[in-house]
Amino acid sequence: MNPSELKTITVIGSGLIGRSWAMVFVSGGYRVKIYDNQPGQAAKAVTEIRKQLEELEEARMLRGDLTAAQQLALLSSYEDLAQALEGAFFVQECVFEQLEVKQSVFQEIERFVVKGVILSSSTSCLVPSSVFAKVQERSCCLVSHPVNPPYYVKLVELVPHPETLATVMDATHSLMTKVGQAPVLLKKEIDGFALNRVQAAIIAESWRLVQDGVISVKDIDLVMSEGLGMRYAFIGPMETMHLNAPEGLEDYMRRYGEGITRILNAFGPVPDFFGEPAKGIVKEMCELIPSDQQHLSARKERRDLLLMHLAKLKNDH
């Protein structure tokens, strides 16, 4: 038996992210206890996960070496927090993105776990020093921020609390690697972490270009999906620059650094995402994809299917 099969992980919260984390962890052979304080929700999540794993197995896209049935056998649901946390060495919290809620949840969790259990939050925008402010023992606390949907998009940002031990960061990095994710280590906490800071820069300039009448909503999305995104799916901006000049990164900056600086200085202030000019951008987007649930759900399904195929392509290469 693989050693990981003897270890237990508790997932707190059974929404989309909680279900995705549970699927990721069982794919690596870990026992997973999924907890939700709303009656019936954790059991409902297991039913949904069963459906997804069986569909993935049928499509030959199931992660890990275990069958869907073997993975499901590792999964159990709980409505009692103490029972859900019993025996866990790692806890992944996935509740509402509200600071007070997360603080309260971790206070409660700390009552039932032994010293040394790693407490991890899935928050996408709250820094660890805020999330864990009411926890007594913060040396084992960190943020493990996934990208939605985590089952197909493997990046996980590991963000330490100022008091987090290096051994805890290393252990979490090892765990995430074992279950097939792609963890990155932030050396210190920062608002927005890395991914959302880069994403915010792209959003701001894309919004500005549309708002200033330079390009349409449809075409700025094509700039990414058929341009930058094609290579960024496999290599990042630093390697892209390194490969785009005959003698590497230093040569690239000699050639293009002044131009990049000129463009950056022309960016101007952060765009207004809420005022009158923003209404035109929203209208243009909704003409391409109406914002009713039927159209949005269809596009989300398409997105996940494409991400699934891209993940397979990346794995095969």
Give the full name of the CATH homologous superfamily of the largest domain. NAD(P)-binding Rossmann-like Domain
**Average pLDDT across residues?**
95
From the alpha carbons, calculate the radius of gyration and give it in angstroms.
22 Å
- Overall outline: globular
Q: Which spans of ≥5 residues are poorly predicted at pLDDT below 50?
A: none
**Helix content percent band:** 40-55%
Number of domains: 2
Structural class: alpha/beta
**How would you characterize the largest beta sheet?**
8 strands, mixed
First and last CA, distance: 29 Å
Task: Provide a quick synopsis of the model.
With 317 residues, the chain is α/β, with parallel strands linked by helices.
What brief labels describe this structure?
2 domains; N-(1-d-carboxylethyl)-l-norvaline Dehydrogenase, domain 2; Rossmann fold; 52% helix; alpha/beta; 317 residues; globular; 8-stranded mixed sheet; 13% strand
Description:
By secondary structure, this protein is of the alpha/beta class. Helix content is 52%, strand content 13%. It is built from 13 helices and eight strands. The protein has an eight-stranded mixed β-sheet, sandwiched between helices. A hairpin with an 8-residue loop joins strand 6 and strand 7. Helix 10 crosses helix 11. The relative contact order is 0.08.
Secondary-structure topology with pairs:
Layout: E1 8-12, H1 16-27, E2 31-35, H2 41-58, H3 68-73, E3 75-78, H4 81-85, E4 88-93, H5 99-112, E5 118-121, H6 128-131, E6 141-146, E7 155-160, H7 166-178, E8 182-185, H8 195-211, H9 217-232, H10 237-243, H11 249-265, H12 276-288, H13 293-316
Parallel strand pairs: 1-2, 1-4, 2-3, 4-5, 5-6, 7-8
Antiparallel strand pairs: 6-7
Helix pairs in contact: 1-2, 10-11
Family: Belongs to the 3-hydroxyacyl-CoA dehydrogenase family.
Protein name: Crystallin, lambda 1
InterPro entries: 3-OHacyl-CoA_DH_CS, 3-OHacyl-CoA_DH_NAD-bd, 3HC_DH_C, 6-PGluconate_DH-like_C_sf, 6PGD_dom2, NAD(P)-bd_dom_sf
